[in-house]
């Protein structure tokens, strides 16, 4: 059979694929990215964390990202009924950048992949990966272009950056249920003029439903009075709010006084989207001749905007290992990739669990104000979930439970 060939084949041109591709191409490797859609394309996941600026920099894409028309972000604000707390990332336990952006992903992702193309990455849009034969040295992908015949692409290593496509998880039987409860998100983009001098557009706003436990909202500002607005709950909870998703989103928003005010007279800029059952896991993040990046591996929950940061971290960890492996070194993928990546993911997981048990809201809104503890929380919320010198990074679960008990007392 005839094969096309490349050094590294990457499935998906989202942030994790673009970042890994750019770094590897800059080392002189031949890289081919297969992307089933055409860019610019919509994606959810719009609020970044400061930690990811270091990852973009490492992969050589910070400069190209900086030219985008993005809203600066310096923290996170939380509101619950009358209560309001904001966390400024400049006051945090871990060193590193304290600001980032909130981005329309159609533009952000496009910019990153164009940066990779400028470094010599071959990106084939409109081509879907439909098959895979794992192999330690010559893995082969089956590619189906939208206009043309299927072909086989032989490479020396495959990175799966297919996000919710979860291509290799499906093709290699790695799928594993998430330990998180299945939730659902409804969201859209809106245009609104926020009439409140206290509104802080440099922060993502997370609101908790005034009476229904587990329902929360995001409110993310973009330039020119555009916003990303979404609500998360269990499917059963959200079903009570109307007959279709647009109604359900509108009605849940009316329940939240701050958002109802901010969105008075707002116009929708796109149809309401729904994503359900997005939390997912895999039994392993690597196998013979391949590794999984970003959402193609594990995805937790949107509440702390950790998705893109984790996706970029996976690229930062995997790309140098691929390079070393192709130079003939033996790589121990469990200890050099999976374990270090999962360490930070598990920190976020503890925070996500503490969010839904209400421990974290009780800590955030409490009057018990230890500056040191605020800084530790601020660092994790800024994405520094791999800084094991932060006491809330190691043993997060136990310490959050303890802390919540103290705050409630
Ligand atoms: P993606 O960005 O999803 O890219 C994958 C690419 O692969 C896509 O372009 C797709 O077209 C392509 N692809 C898929 N299948 C194939 C195939 N068979 N062949 C070829 N190409 C294929 N994260 C944040 O950081 N901040 C947030 O505020 C945030 N909010 C979120 C809100 C919700 C409701 C949800 C569900 C997630 C949110 N996330 C957020 C997570 C974020 O969306 C993802 O973590 C992030 O997009 C992952 O990037 P990625 O590079 O892994 O994959």
From TrEMBL:
FAD-binding domain segment(s): 5-164
EC number: 1.14.13.180
Alphabetical keyword list: Oxidoreductase
Entry-linked InterPro entries: FAD-bd (IPR002938), FAD/NAD-bd_sf (IPR036188), Flavin-dep_Halogenase_NPB (IPR050816)
Origin superkingdom: Bacteria
GO molecular function: FAD binding; oxidoreductase activity
Keyword Oxidoreductase (UniProt): yes
PANTHER family per record: FAD-BINDING PROTEIN (PTHR43747), SLR1998 PROTEIN (PTHR43747:SF1)
Name of this chain's protein: Aklavinone 12-hydroxylase RdmE
Organism listed in the record: Granulosicoccus antarcticus IMCC3135
